[in-house]
Structures are given as C-alpha cells and as structure tokens.
Specification:
With 606 residues, this protein is mainly alpha-helical. It folds into three domains: 9-30 and 279-587, no CATH class; 61-138; 145-259, no CATH class. 63% of the residues lie in helices and 2% in strands. The chain contains 25 helices and three strands. The chain has helices at 2-13, 46-49, 58-74, 81-100, 108-138, 145-156, 163-189, 201-225, 230-259, 275-285, 292-316, 323-331, 340-357, 365-369, 378-381, 404-413, 416-426, 431-438, 451-467, 474-498, 504-515, 519-530, 538-556, 564-574, 579-587, and strands at 372-375, 388-389, 392-395. Strands 1-3-2 form a three-stranded mixed β-sheet, with helices on one face. Helix 11 (292-316) crosses helix 12 and helix 21 (504-515) packs across helix 22. It is globular and about 75 Å long. The N and C termini lie far apart (62 Å). Mean pLDDT is 91; it is low at 1-24.
Length: 606
C-alpha cells in the first residue's frame, strides 16, 4: 500500500523516471567507504608540517582578536553607547601602536598581516561610526534603551543593585515605551501632531532586532539577582514582568503595524541600505578599487556572456533563441522522493574524481571523507530555496508536510542540473575544502574573512570546471548558466538596493525576468540577502571574487609563473584574506608600509 501511494504521488507530480542505484552508477567514483579507508591515509606528511607555516605577526593577530572578544565580554550590551565608545577607543589604540611598530624587518607574510590588520581596524572604526548613527535614528522608538543597558553594565562592574531604584528604572522604561508607541500610532493615523513619530520601516526593523537583544540582556541581568538578593526580587519582579511583556507587545506592534508583517504570512522584505558612503567603506576593506557603478558595469558584461551561452543551449535543444524554454525543460528534470540524497552524494564524488584525475589541487583523503549531509526544513527553504554547504551539505528538497505547489516549487528549484552545477561549489573543491584548509593552515586569518575569498573561490571553480569541459550536455550547461547568471544578477540588484535605487520588489522582478527564477525562489534569495545577517557586499563577493581569481590565474598560471596545482594549494594554505593580498602573497611581493589598494583586475575602465 505504501509503495502504491508513492507511485501515485510520483505520477501526480510528474517526476522524472530517473532513479539512482548502485547497480546503475558507481556512486563513489572509486573512493572507498569511510569505514574501509586505511587510517594511515588520514595522517599527513609530518615533516612538512613541522616547518614554519605562518607569518611573524600571527600571534599579534591572534592577540588582537582575543582581546577584542574580551572587550565585548566586558561591555556585553550590543549597540550601547558605552560598548561603542569602548570599542572605538580600543581600535584606535591598536591602530596607533600598529603604526608605530618596526615594519621594515617583516617578510612577505608579515607585511600582509600588518596591512590586513590595519585595514580591519580602520573598517571596524567605520562600522562603529555607522552603528552610532543608526542607534541615534532609533532613539525616538527606543527612548528607554540606554537606561536599560545601564542596568546590565552596572552589573558587569559588580555594583550591588538597589532594588527600589532598579524597579523605578523598569517602570519608567515602560512609561517611555508606551509614549513612543502612542507617538507612532499618531504618526500612522494621519496628519502629524506635535508629538507624532513618522513611521519608517527600516528603522522599525532595526528597533525590533534591538528589542530582542535588549530583552535577552535584561533577562540575564534579572536572573543574576532574582532569588539571590531578597530585596531585589521584592522590588523588581513585577515591574520586570510588566516591562518584558510590554517589550514583546511593542515588537509585535512594530512588526505588524510599521514593517507590515501579517500573522501567518512571511515577513516583508525590508532590508537596510547603507548608501554610497557605506559601500565605499566596505569596498575599501575588501580592497576593491572600483565604484559600485563600475562593478555593476562588469556584471552586465558577464551577463551578456551568459545570455549568449544560453542561446547556444536553447538552439541545441531545438528551441531557437528561446532560452526560457530551455530553462523550463531543465527545471522539470528532477528525481523522485527519496532519491535526492543519493544523487547529491554521487555528484560530490564525481567532482572529486574530475579534479583529482587532472591533479588540479591537493585533495587529502580525510577531506573527502569528513563531510556529511542533512536535509533542510520546509521553513528554512523559504529563505534558502537551494541547498547550502560547508562542513556538510544541507539538501533542500520537498517534504510530505508541504502542500502540492510548494512541493513542485522545491522540486523545480532543486533539479538535477542545478544541483550538478553547484554541489562541488558547496563541497569539494568549494566551501568544504576551504573549511578543511582554514581549520589547519593560518587559522589567525579567519579574522579577515571576506566573501570575495570565501564565495569567490567556490565560484572560481564554477568558472574553471566550465572551461575544462565538466559541463558537456546541454541541460548540464543550462544548470551552470542559471547559477552564473544569478551571480551576475546578485551584483546588480544588491548594489542598486544599497544605493537606494531599487526596492526589494524590483530586485525580485529582476531575478524572475533576467535570470529565470520562479517567483518563490527569487523572493527567497532577496529575503536572504536583505533580511538576514549578510554583509552588504556579500552577494557582490561571489562573482567579483571569482573574476579576481580568474585574473590572478591568467597572470600567474597562464603567464607561466606558477603551476596550476601550486596556485590552488597556496591559495588554500594561505588563509582567508582579500584577493589583492592573495596576489601579493603568491607573487612574493614585500608590500611597502604606505601600500594602498591598486590592483585593477578588470582594467582601468571596466
């Protein structure tokens, strides 16, 4: 009966008849099961690892990171005036001492770390200034924030609380909250009165997040004393209960009445654009010597290449120049329920086989064996309609709890060819490989994490495997082109959003019209970009980082200065950093102390 039901479901949804089994394909492409590989294969060349691997400033960078983390423990309230002031003072003090240290004796890697740390300090100071401005914009909505922050901050200084005074602070905060809410309601109701606050969705969304952080800190403060200090509990228990309830209600009011969320529906996409000045700060940290407008122009050129290749695929499939028909055929080629995990595993091993046979990069057996797979929840698929990866691959596929249309949407988004184009992006030689190497080499450079290195590397392999002929069949090339077009689109829509030129809805429409997304996947991608915790340049980092690596490959490998395997191995063992610093490291450049970003990797006039 159960098998009959599955067959009926397959017929109803229109699944491809393809199933994968051990008899039909060598799932592992010659790799042994993890339990059967000799443990000696997992032990590296210890003699080579005994040699110095890092720069002279490794311990200095590690000390900076540890001390900064300690400062955030000392001042734990996110966004409080005290925390921001102390962090700014800390970074300025480090910057002054870094500038004063003796630079000349440093080698190639030491000088790279010096510049990376100096850039990081400058960037963090810029972020603190940005956060101070944003906190100031939230004051009308959160007039009580600073005094509530003060409760936790006094606790951190081990001051014995005055129960009566603390209760008064809690009660006063609730009065201020209610006044702010009435002012917002007045602003919503029509012509602004003297005390009305004009609602702003972006500031309201920030305030919602800040309320959540404040509630956590307030709870930590209260639990520290309640029950241990009888007088404290007697005074504060009821005011605390009433205030936390009011904070929850206020956040709900902001979410529904200002941001526009409706109960039972997905949260509206609002985002928080940082503007041209904010983008300039972030681009400087990434060592990208181009304006946002120039990067958009680069993306449009890459888009034109994709569109030309799409036409070739459409013609091979008999659709003339109608690339959207080719795209639709690709989306309908998915596997049946239960087959997706095996298919994903087979694609992972296929990519390992492809790159190891060509000796493109070192792939230790331990790396091949230590990734694993989990399935993505239906709720998470609303934000991430495609699978994710790293130390594991998180497979997006419909569950039996989804309604009929949601099942079809998930199947189409995770068809065989889209998966084949990106399983290796998530695993080997992409993100899983990165994680494996960064856990073992130059770990101190995790401080300089950048999407241009993280996502750029994974996308570089999409470029490179395309050039090496990994994508042969038309539908496989269609899957690769879908993603490559998507990476171009990410630059265009995210920069236009942060420049204040496009709304989230325009971004969604762009993904549907230019890339061929189904509307639900386009919505999920835009929501992920703007409502999540991604940095403003994260989506730019995919394509632009890959273009940087493509330029560096042409310069060093195709230019005859370095072998391909050495090129890839040295990028991985060097640790995370902007690609311009990867270039300095691979070329052995001893950077001068006054070095400034200068690498025009797509020419002077892109």
């Amino acid at each position: 009966m159960k098998n009959h039901a599955v067959r009926c479901l397959v017929a109803t949804l229109g699944f491809s008849t393809l199933t994968l089994s051990a008899a039909e394909v060598d799932l592992r492409y010659g790799q042994p099961p993890q339990s059967q590989r000799p443990a000696s294969d997992y032990v590296p060349d210890l003699t080579a690892l005994a040699q110095p691997q890092s720069s002279e400033l490794r311990e200095l960078v590690e000390r900076f990171r540890a001390d900064r983390a300690g400062l955030e423990v000392m001042h734990p309230v996110p966004g409080s005036p005290l925390q921001l002031r102390r962090l700014a003072e800390f970074h300025r003090a480090w910057g002054e001492k870094l500038d004063a240290m003796n630079y000349d004796p440093l080698g190639v890697d030491g000088r790279i770390d010096w510049h990376l740390l100096r850039s990081e300090i400058k960037y963090r100071l810029g972020l603190i200034e940005r956060q101070q401005k944003r906190m100031a914009e939230m004051v009308p909505l959160l007039p009580f924030f600073e005094q509530l922050a003060g409760l936790q901050e006094k606790r951190r200084e081990y001051a014995k609380p005055d129960g009566k005074s603390s209760a008064a602070t809690l009660a006063d905060a609730r009065v201020q909250l209610e006044a702010a809410r009435k002012a917002l309601e007045a602003g919503l109701s029509g012509p602004a009165s003297e005390n009305a606050i004009k609602p702003d969705k972006i500031v309201a969304l920030r305030a919602i997040n800040q309320i959540a952080a404040t509630t956590r800190q307030l709870g930590d403060w209260f639990k520290h004393y309640d029950g241990y200090d009888p007088e404290f509990g007697w005074w504060t228990r009821e005011p605390y209960k009433r205030l936390t309830g009011a904070l929850d209600d206020y956040a709900k009011f902001l979410r529904e009445k200002i941001v526009g969320a409706k109960p039972g529906e997905d949260e509206p996409i609002v985002g928080d654009p940082i503007g041209a000045d904010g983008l300039a700060v972030d681009l400087e940290r990434e060592m990208i010597p181009y304006t946002p407008e120039q990067l958009i122009a680069v993306a449009e050129k890459e888009f034109a290449w994709c569109e030309a290749e799409w036409r070739k695929v459409a013609q091979e499939l008999g659709y003339g120049d109608d690339w959207k028909k080719a795209l639709e055929k690709m989306k309908e080629d998915y596997v049946a329920p239960g087959d997706q995990p095996q298919m994903i595993a087979g694609l992972a091993y296929e990519a390992v086989d492809f790159i190891t046979k060509r000796d493109l990069i070192t792939v230790p057996p331990h790396m091949i064996d230590d990734w694993f797979m989990t399935m993505m929840s239906p709720e998470r698929q609303k934000v991430s309609p495609f699978f994710l990866g790293g130390d594991r691959i998180i497979v997006s596929f419909p569950t039996d709890t989804m309604d009929h249309q949601d099942k079809l949407d998930s199947l189409r988004a995770n068809n065989q060819h889209v998966c084949r184009a990106t399983v290796f992006h998530e695993l080997i030689p992409g993100h899983h490989m990165q994680g494996w190497f960064t856990d073992r080499f130059n770990q101190h450079r995790d401080l300089f994490n950048t999407p241009f290195w993280v996502e750029g590397w994974a996308l570089w392999w999409e470029f490179h495997l395309w050039d090496l002929g990994f994508q042969q069949k038309p539908l496989n090339r269609a899957g690769a082109l879908f993603w490559r077009s998507h990476r171009c689109a990410r630059i265009i829509f995210s920069l236009n959003f942060h420049l204040g030129k496009w709304t989230p809805q325009q971004c969604i429409d762009f993904l549907v019209d230019r890339v061929g997304h189904d509307r639900h996947t386009a919505t999920g991608e835009v929501r992920r970009s703007f409502n999540g915790d991604y940095s403003p340049l994260y989506q730019v980092g995919y394509m632009m980082g890959a273009i940087q690596l493509r330029a560096l490959y042409a310069e060093l490998v195709q230019g005859g200065k370095m072998g391909e395997k050495e090129f890839h191995d040295r990028i991985m063992t060097g640790g995370q950093m902007p690609i311009e610093m990867v270039r300095a490291r691979l070329s052995g450049t001893k950077l001068p102390k006054d070095y400034r970003t200068s690498w025009k990797f797509v020419g002077n006039n892109p």
